[in-house]
Amino acid sequence: MVHAPQTCEALLIWFQKQGGTVDLTSMGLVDFPNSEGGRGAIALKDIPEGHVLFSIPRDLTLSTRTSSLPTLFGLDEWKRFKLGEGWSGLILSMMWEAAQGPKSKWSEYMSILPTSFDTPMFWDEKDLAELQGTSIVSKLGKEDAEEEYKTKLVPALESRPDLFPSSERETHYSFHTFHLMGSRILSRSFDVEKWQGDEDEDENEMHEANTSMGSAMDVDENRAADPHSHRPEGEEHDEEEHEEGEEEEEEQDSSDTAMVPMADMLNARFGSENAKLFHEKTDLKMIATKPIKAGEQIWNTYGDLPNSELLRRYGHVDIMALPNGEQGNPGDVVEIRADGIVKAVHEIYPNITEESFSERIDWWLEEGEDDVFDFDWDLELPDPALAIIRLFLLSEAEWIKAREKSKPPKPKADTEVLTTLKRAIQDRLKDYLTSVVEDEALLQRDDLTLNHRQAIVVRLGEKKILDSFLTKIAGLVEQQSNKAGKRKHETEAPVKGHGKKSKR
Ligand SMILES: C[S@@+](CC[C@H](N)C(=O)[O-])C[C@H]1O[C@@H](n2cnc3c(N)ncnc32)[C@H](O)[C@@H]1O
């Protein structure tokens, strides 16, 4: 990540001039090594839990609520151009504020923001190919971003040459700048809801809100809000169902997405959070959530994400000791999609018809069950994956009964189900171009580019999880076969004249 050469000093001066307060006896901004996040905050003395490190007036956050652009553009027009949906309104506001130069309240703040990113959104095809098998590529949403720019931003820009002069189009309103602002939001914004407290509530009353860094990006309920993300297949938003009063999803209010100066200077590492942003009526406060020793980094949380998501949103990966002694990110997750399960069942049971698969999977989805199964370092076999395999293996009579009772099968890890899951995992491993051994050897080299190295770390972590599941499944199958052998032996024993009765 490259950021403008302006010093942290300039940010601190601007921040305080604008009404922000920082306890400069307790914390400073410094350059840590890149492996520890680069520019970040350090404790200058021992800081007790509960200490307020800095406080940001709400009107110093940059969002479509605080920028004057939406009002100048006209709120009805803003709505007509759909700038209140997703991030395009905030991106346009940030472009416009940057175009105002020193006239903008956020000018100094904007000048310390990164000007390039290590996120795969900016990788070339060769580097992207290194991510094959991981879920990142399908979530990049490059085409969605381009579509958003063309269909929302460009018409809005063209409608108001007084606000967006054509002479500034290349410098401030290009597709490249759209990407840059989108990536700044993706890696630095917070979800800052309107104050929900009682009017007469104490000014100092605090709410722990959804303000972990990047929480504004936690828009899984409404992925369309993120122009840099992609709504996975099967998650289309069905307006009619909504109208018919189906389960109402809480819509993300896009004006909650805000850039929060100073709070976005904090780095994060898995399980290391020692400070967090809290909401108050007029300010947001960064408060120590643990005692922090002098010299230690002050860490926020980005939600302890898997490396695939860290790389996609922030451009870095976490590597630390795993419970099994290896190195990796304990938050890593591998996704296996339902179609991967269908393929494995079909390979082992070729007599099951296409019709039977599609009938059962349709019903499974209608029942509201998942079509993507997460495998993580807990090494717990995911119940929905076991249940869907069993669903495909039900006899016709059992299937009819399950459907009548509207009851998916129990997630029982018997040998049939385990063998099929094993096949699905083996197939999933084939999605990656390299093996664990090859990746481990590659990581020993010192001539790798950062993109290549980070791609290897992401895919290696995922493959190690899948390998660990294969080892676990092999153990379970062996246990079951030993038990079955013992039962058989016991059943046969009387015949052999040992006189022991079968338990059956
Ligand atoms: C919210 S900003 C934090 C401040 C940032 N370091 C800066 O210089 O402005 C998030 C960015 O910091 C970097 N970062 C944060 N935590 C990191 C970590 N544990 N390792 C490497 N980079 C990290 C990533 O580039 C990420 O996109």
Automatic annotation (TrEMBL):
This is SET domain-containing protein. SUPFAM superfamilies: RuBisCo LSMT C-terminal, substrate-binding domain (SSF81822), SET domain (SSF82199). Gene3D superfamilies: Rubisco LSMT, substrate-binding domain, set domain protein methyltransferase, domain 1. Residues 25-303 form the SET domain. The keyword S-adenosyl-L-methionine applies. It comes from Ephemerocybe angulata. InterPro entries: Rubisco_LSMT_subst-bd (IPR015353), Rubisco_LSMT_subst-bd_sf (IPR036464), SET_dom (IPR001214), SET_dom_sf (IPR046341), SETD3_SETD6_MTase (IPR050600), SETD6_SET (IPR044430). GO terms for molecular function: protein-lysine N-methyltransferase activity. The keyword Methyltransferase applies. Keywords: Methyltransferase, S-adenosyl-L-methionine, Transferase. Residues 235-254 have a biased composition (Acidic residues). GO terms for biological process: methylation. GO terms for cellular component: nucleus. Residues 196-257, 480-504 are annotated as: Disordered. Pfam families: Rubis-subs-bind, SET. Residues 220-234 have a biased composition (Basic and acidic residues). Signal peptide: none annotated.
